[in-house]
Amino acid sequence: MKTKVEDINRNIYDIKNKDEYEFKIEKGLNKKIVEEISKQKNDPDWMREIRLKALETYNKLELPTWGPDLSELKMDNIATYVKPKTELNSSWEDVPEDIKNTFDKLGIPEAEKKSLAGVGAQYDSEVVYHSMKKELLEQGVIYTDMETAVREYPEIVKEHFMKCVPVNDHKFVALHAAVWSGGSFVYVPKGVKLDIPLQSYFRLNSPESGQFEHTLIIVDEGASLHFIEGCSAPKYNKVNLHAGCVELYVKDNAYLRYSTIENWSKNMMNLNTKKAIVGKNAQIDWVTGSFGSKVSMLYPMSILNGENAKTEYTGITFAGKNQNLDTGFKVVHNAKNTSSLVNSKSISKDGGACTYRALVRIGENAQNSKCSVSCESLMLDDISRSDTIPVNDIRTDEVTFSHEAKIGKISDKEIFYLMSRGLSEEDAKAMIVRGFAYPISKELPVEYAVEMNNLINLELEGSIG
Asked: For the chain, N or C: smaller number of CB within 10 Å?
């Protein structure tokens, strides 16, 4: 009898290019290395100062004492900056052939041709390609790589950089601030509503290295944006590190939808930090898929500072053999009539571990706020694990709050019923898993990228055996 759901077929993501680069910094982390990255980046003095202060903070902070075991991560073995053999290109044809082939196979240019307003593609530590449709430029939309933003829009960057996510938030945020490289900068002016999404794609190719991209998005008053982010890396037998940072500012009456597919390989430590500050009558919706990676610690956060601010989180996590994915969501209600809706699902198999870790804080000034949390876990065998660890901190009585959690295994009765209707066992299991994932997958922008389509379908057809 066929009873197991196999891993997602990762062949397309495990393309390895030769580890060629123009410059790769020595492994480890010290003042000399941080200063060298700053020099390579042509940082202004104020950014160099931020990096060096962040390094001091990093050295003072301890590793988290909760969550997955991070003892395998040795910074002495990680190169924090790898410059590929190319400059930033605005024409796809100018991107070097080996890098272009990788992105072609992942479906990036094709997705751009069909339905994206703008695309940025990062390879190792640098953005290698960036383009945006002319009509957006005419509306005053800024979409560029972070290095260009630091040089060309210093006042906006200074005002927002590491302000939503403070440098001392935790050890890996401090690390990020010290060695960050690449990433995306988006500014949508007041009242401008983008009908089609912007997308950034991050690809880590070099072994024993880290990716530390910084994403800074400001959606000004009354504006709206859908931003899509994709990430992947080939599999190596050495540990790689991803410690990016995402800072989102959703001003009064604005709307942002932030969709992410993280599909790192099984040697990746994914220690990413994402936060949003949400203004009056504004809304942010998060849609997240977490696949791949050896270890993930990822908890997007919405800080609802304005009255009537809203947030929705829709996420799915899929953990297989030797994976420990510790993910969740955090929301802080700081104003009256704010609302949050959390819908999280996880699937674990072959001994994989999924943990949903969450914080809901409703402040004493957040009367008439509403929060609804639902987390469901599906285990596909007897050796996998699923845990739910919610923290609910409610500081006013005038709220509506609900929390629901379900953990279960695939039902033999359901399998038997579907098989009695003519399905094979493998098709029956695949149908149940897809049905479980559907409320999440229907929220994902599958039409925009081949990669997302492949992942959300989980490639279950014929892969049970």
From this structure: N
